[in-house]
Amino acid sequence: MATxxxxxxxxxxxxxxxxxxxxxxxxxxxxxDGTGQPPNFSVQLDRDVTDEYxxxxxxxxxxxxxxxxxxxxxxxGDPNRPRLNTTGDWDQGELTFSLGRPPPMxxxxxxxxxxxxxxxxxxxxxARKTALSATVGLNSVQFGWLCRDNRFxxxxxxxxxxISNLPADNTPSLRFNxxxxxxxxxxxxxxxxxxxxxxxxxxxxxxxxxxxxxxAERSTPGILFTFLSPPALxxxxxxxxxxxxxxxxxxxxxxxxxxHTRIIPYTLFAMRVTCASQTHMEEFRRMARAASxxxxxxxxxxxxxxxxxxxxxxxxxxxxxxxxxxxxxxxQALSILNAAALDxxxxxxxxxxxxxxxxxxxxxxxxxGEVLRGFGSKLKDPAALIQDDESIIRCFESVKADxxxxxxxxxxxxxxxxxxxxxxxxxxxxxxxxxxxxxxxxNRVLRQYPAHQEYFLRVNFTDEDKLHFRWDREVDGARFVKxxxxxxxxxxxxxxxxxxxxxxxxxxxxxEHAVWFSAPFQEPDGGxxxxxxxxxxxxxxxxxxxxxxxxxxxxxMSQAFTATEPSIALSLDGDIPxxxxxxxxxxxxxxxxxxxxxxxARRIIRALGSSSRRKRFFLRPSAFQFRMGGCKGVLMVxxxxxxxxxxxxxxxxxxxxxxxxxxxPTAVNDRxxxxxxxxxxxxxxxxxxxxxxxxxxxxxxxxxVADFTGYLPPNTIFACVQLRDEKPFCIKGRVLITRSxxxxxxxxxxxxxxxxxxxxSPFEHERYYNCVxxxxxxxxxxxxxxxxxxxxxxxxxxxxNPSLFPPSCYPPAQYPxxxxxxxxxxxxxxxxxxxxxDYINSDILGLICQQFLVTADRVPEMARHPDxxxxxxxASRAVDFAKSGMPVGRGELPKAPKAKPxxxxxxxxxxxxxxxxxxxxxxxxxxxxxxxxxxxxxxEVVRQANREHRDAEEEExxxxxxxxxxxxxxxxxxxxxxxxxxxxPISDAVRSSLYPNYIDTSSRPDPGAIAxxxxxxxxxxxxxxxxCSHHSITKQPLTEEEVLIGxxxxxxxxxxxxxxxxxxxxxxxxxxxxxxxxxxxxxxDGRELEADDDDLVNLQRRLQVAWLAWCLSVxxxxxxxxxxxxxxxxAAIFDxxxxxxxxxxxxxxxxxxxxxxxxxxxxxxxxxxxxAAQETAQGGPANASVKVKKHTDPVTMPVRRS
Length: 1202
Hints:
By secondary structure, the protein is of the alpha+beta class. Helices cover about 35% and strands about 20% of the residues.
């Protein structure tokens, strides 16, 4: 390999001129055909010894591809060949090209591993850095509170003595950091012999909401910053190392000294700085424009006041008052204060009203807490227009009036034993935010203490913007996590007078950096339950030396905290047998899967199907994911087992305990509908653009189980798929099988499906619908080949389309087990909490997988490149980190490519990614990324969200609306009526189905039905408002459409955080819908009617209630929550029609002989079922109420390079 020597370069020509000319040649045919990455090259010019010119007229052109070098020399090396196509006024003169000396190997490696980057991009970055390089001198830095009269109340000013006791320079300054897109505000500088320390406020450009310029004091003009989320507080250290080299580090901190600590949770959303002069102010304005910050506005008059809102006396008074309130009420009041929805004076002004609320017989403790919760949600809604003390009181009284005669919200009326009221706390670097309670799936531990579930708290650790911690390279993030997160884990939390301490976590929660805390409580027998006593009662952890392995011990404890749904309690005469796994060559073929009798499986199905969640199974499940004391995994039906027999494998035993908690199928939950569809479209396109998730038709995702009979030959499977309303079919032939996440190229393999089972085979009568049965024969189990899978609940992707088959499969990876970290003594609570902080600091699985994709994008071998193979092995270790306690060090990762593909930037370019060189990826992911334009769709969604908040009207008292409702319904029979219910298109269709075949829609509404509406509707809207507020990832609450569709439209730099928020939002909205539906099925005495209720009058009353609910939703259509409430009402209408159809089918003969001639109000007794309505009920919105989780979803394939 040789370089190309450049001779006789005109002296006035710059290096950039030459690069542009060569670029125009090398990035066109015959060197580049427009596909893939264009050739990268380097131009170096020799220095002019006189320094008169930029170069001496000679230089070197280096190209990594030898073939490109040869073609270039053949075209341009001969003086008689064509010249470069150049632009501008320069003449190439005698510029010549010839073969030179071999290039340095490190330069060749750089060119091979990095795509070409246009030098104009680098020039633009340098120009921006220059524009943001000035320093703005400051006189002071103040933190405070932006009051409702738009005045800034200064609550704390940077006091150098409170930050450090050392001599310091108390001259603050402000400068822009163009590399990280941040503003650095230095409060103080402390100099010692060996180091310089700076107290620094670090503000990301993206967190600045508004800038207000105060020029009342022209000599020291002020700048008021308001933030979307608080800035970071840091200590910057410049020191000399022992080798005399400069050493720079940044440390995150939670406050600047003791006087700052008390008020900082409330005063970081507004900051004011005063400039040293008008000149410095103008310099700031210029740089703010260059940095594209929000345009500053001028404030007249000066916005600064000093009201001492957060003085120690005020905060002490609030704390003492909260300790005297019932805890559930105090929690909500503290939640309002900590969320900065009210200041202490405003909250204190509501003290007497809150105390009266608790004493009011119509409310009491539980309902008073709900009023405050709804009040807090409404305060956060910009549409509430809270402007002064009077509007605060009006808002409080409005929520109170709405809930006076309403029933308790769905979170307070738990019908399903599998859910509970979950209180939440989010610990950020400076704040503790409180939310809930929200309905969440319970676990084995919580179900043991049903009367004390408010003594359990879910605690999340996040950055100020509620995203996971992310650190710049210079920031010592591990130190801060140890101090802040470790401090809370060790010392506990004091929430409204109740002390909570670390308990444990579930594995899924740990991935979200969330754990369980609990507070001590007393059982009826007088015994005290503490976090330690709960852990001690979980099981015998001396099993397999677990008590000395912190990570593995915590992982085994986490099984008890895994969200499950209770199914049945087993009464056993003896121990459940535990048999050996089928194992060969250290490969377990039955890893995680046991057996269950058909009789016991039927009991579980009946228990789950008869619960208040009203599951509807469209097939008989033959496999169950379960938790049972110290065992976990999957149980598959074995027809040979009798009665209540269960047979477990040794791989399923994690520690010693006993009690069954089966995890059954999971529930899923005009113009408004059209807007909702637009939200859904945005969600689907976003998944395709940024995650490359493409449904693959004719492919299936199934739960893996094992052929315990040994019937299947090696490398074969049996899979029988049963879709709703379709005949089952058995897959036959060659199948490409894998499981997510696929990282190693060998994570995709071929297997052979046997098709319809032959007569006499074990699958002839037990088809294991929607499961894939793996062979237990051969040298190695197939699941272990697929990203280290097992059979304890893993789902596998079966791809049947031959056009997607690769020519051959890469050999599967070996995944050797990692020896877990083991202590010399049994673990203490401190060991467990230290492990949690270690996990947060060392969890780099996402980083490894992202680097894998970026590396595969730029090399011809793609996933088979040596660096990708290395990263695949590290990813396997990182997955096991949560159990082994042995992290992957960042230093073990191969060197990351300098330039990144365009698709890796993400939805929102972070400060770091804005300064990363990018290129247009020519892979499928890159083309998909560029061909899906979300801007127009996203802007439409954002406009709708803004319009909903802007146009939201002040809701009138619900009592007034309900008093008018009877008049509205009475007018429906009038042809001249202009009531919205009559003229709504859906109303017309539904009314024609209901009347005259089911109920008389024109009759006067029953008083009992109106009473039900008075209870249900305000509870629903209050709960929905809380869900919208809690799960938003921005300052604005979610829209009704987002909750209905189950999406969050806002963009984020951390899609994983949004995905987790969507999952929690869907689960809580699902519970809200199901509880509301259950209430719509109630009679006046609170009894829930079932479809087989033999009282037709009650069934018709239930349908009348549902119709009334629909009418209410239409009449209240302009108020929040009404439109989605209408969809629930429609589902209840279709369910009611179906229930009457069932009754008629079973009782038509008896009623024909016994029932007298019907009156007008009961005319539907003898009429046949309305076929159109029945068809609508079977295929309409009612089907959306409860869905059985099935493992036959189409495979959603991220595009991979394997």
